[in-house]
Write a structure and sequence with these properties.
Na+/H+ antiporter like fold; 81% helix; globular
Length: 414
């Protein structure tokens, strides 16, 4: 209990510090909020001051999985409410391309690089690649918001990065499940189960359920607004309550809750956007969900991750681990996005495509799928490699976010 209290105190101090100095931090190239939180977790964890050991709290993977899922759900809801519905209608082509063609190709590239460098069994390499295929809405949200991003990056690029990171988190579920099923079942049975149960039921039904729950909530909120039974500021409470409801219901049914909660947020957004005169106050306050989520709910997961890092496993990887951390991030994504440039419609600007190709950050989504995989397979190698690449991404994408945003803006002005 004392360790939990210490962890809560550290998380609180980190949140207070970030809240008071958020604007200054966003303008310092070498500092990002997730990276600061990660370092705080490392300091209190077994590697440094040894005041918090999450492994002693029970099943570490289960704890981290549930914490990552909650973080991811709230971040996805905030992203869905921040995205203009008009953007999704106008920029559907680049989204379809990066999701429909880009995701499988990123998975393939990641599988080949991981297999060749790591020397792990092929299906384990495929699983690790599936884990690091989806970009993260938590880290992406912090990259594309704030003074630096809003000053130097075009709105369409920022929305594309946010939308891709949100959509591909839920769509990554079948990519992760396929190698797990093949490793735990007979190949023929695994493929049939994947097609009928994972794709049709866990993903398809989850999508429909998420849309229905979000749309119904939006209509109920409009009715309450019209009848004056609720305050306009309650959009934050409604969004958080909807997140918990969707995650709880969909997880209980054994479905893809990550996709469901994002689609629920989009449906809520769309239902509130249809009648702006009746929902004006609600619409004006949608942005607060993202702001509160980024400050209060997103950061703690990185403190917990820092306290749980498998340092001994990293050292056992030796130089291969270092090479993997450096190589896999650019190779898995940059060639794919650049190759798809002719198909990206409105996103054909070279500087936009280059920025999009690099910024596929990892975070809570990859942590969720990593811990899910470890629970299913009891494969510690997945946790060691997955956590290593997640941390490499937090450093690489975090440190490069502000400088590359300024560089993009500089070239735009010339």
């Amino acid at each position: 209990m004392n360790e939990l209290n210490i962890a809560l105190a550290v998380i609180g101090v980190v949140l207070l510090t970030l809240g008071m100095f958020s604007r200054a931090i966003s303008r310092i190239s070498l500092l990002t909020e997730p990276l600061i939180a990660l370092v705080a977790g490392i300091l209190i964890g077994p590697a440094v001051f040894k005041v918090v050991d999450i492994a002693k709290w029970g099943d570490q993977e289960t704890f981290l999985q549930q914490a990552a899922l909650l973080t991811l759900g709230i971040a996805l809801m905030g992203t869905a409410l921040r995205l203009p519905i008009s953007y999704l209608r106008e920029y559907w082509q680049p989204l379809v391309v990066v999701l429909g063609l880009g995701m499988p190709l990123v998975w393939l590239c990641g599988s080949l690089v991981t297999y060749l460098l790591l020397g792990a069994p092929f299906l384990i390499a495929v699983l690790i690649a599936a884990i690091i295929t989806p970009t993260d809405p938590v880290v992406a949200g912090l990259i594309v918001t704030g003074d630096v991003a809003e000053e130097h990056l075009p709105e369409s690029l920022r929305h594309t990065i946010s939308a891709e990171s949100a959509f591909n988190d839920g769509l990554a579920y079948p990519f992760v499940l396929l190698p797990i099923l093949i490793l735990t079942r007979l190949p023929d049975d695994a493929v049939i189960h994947w097609l009928l149960y994972t794709i049709l039921l866990q993903v398809g039904v989850a999508a429909v359920l998420g849309l229905l729950l979000g749309y119904t909530t939006g209509k109920a909120l409009q009715w309450a607004q019209a009848k004056e039974t609720t305050e306009p500021t309650s959009i934050l409470a409604v969004a958080l309550a909807l997140t918990l409801s969707v995650v709880g219901i969909v997880e209980t049914l054994g479905l893809d809750s990550v996709l469901a909660v994002f689609l629920a947020g989009l449906a809520l957004n769309a239902s509130l956007s249809r009648k702006p005169k009746e929902s004006g106050d609600i619409l004006e306050r949608k942005g607060q969900v993202q702001e509160v989520a980024a400050r209060f709910f997103d950061i703690p997961i990185f403190v917990l991750l820092g306290a749980a890092l498998p340092w001994e496993g990293w050292f056992d990887l030796g130089w291969i681990g270092l090479v993997l951390a450096i190589v896999v991030l650019p190779v898995r994504r940059i060639p794919v996005v650049l190759a798809l440039k002719p198909l990206l419609g409105q996103m054909r600007s070279t500087k936009d495509v280059l920025f999009l190709s690099w910024f596929g950050p990892l975070g809570a989504a990859a942590l969720y799928y990593t811990t899910l995989s470890v629970q299913e397979l009891q494969a510690q190698q997945v946790w060691v490699v997955g956590s290593l690449i997640i941390c490499a991404s937090l450093v690489a994408h975090g440190v490069s976010a502000a400088p590359l945003a300024r560089l993009h803006g500089k070239h735009t002005q010339q």
